[in-house]
Sequence to fold (135 residues):
Amino acid sequence: MNDSFYFTKRWFAFFLLYVLVWYPVSFLLVSAYQATAHPAVYVAVNIFTPLWTLLVSYLYFRRAQNNWSARFVTAFGWIILMFVVAIVLVRPVYGLGWSSILNWGVINANWINVVAIIVGAIAAARPKRDLSKTR
Fold:
């Protein structure tokens, strides 16, 4: 297998795990906030996605190719696929058009998820041990 090939079954499986938990939990949190307008729910709405992204990224990169190319491919690939899933589901779930998801405000708000994927990858990286210094 080519070392530059990052789109493996594992890559897609972790993305699927990411979305299958992220979308329903986000939907429930947004619904809870709309119903209660409670500040704690507002905080939960805003921190859930980056924290979930960080955790899934960390778990994925523990056993995946972990270099800068893989980090950026995963970060931008997962975010682009997340947007595709959100665009497909926005009409049936929320009754809104695709432009409610694909606009500069939403795209700009997702930079934190790109950062969370990269930070999760860096946290999962294990430093190479220098075996010459062990005795």
Notes: The chain has one domain: 9-124.
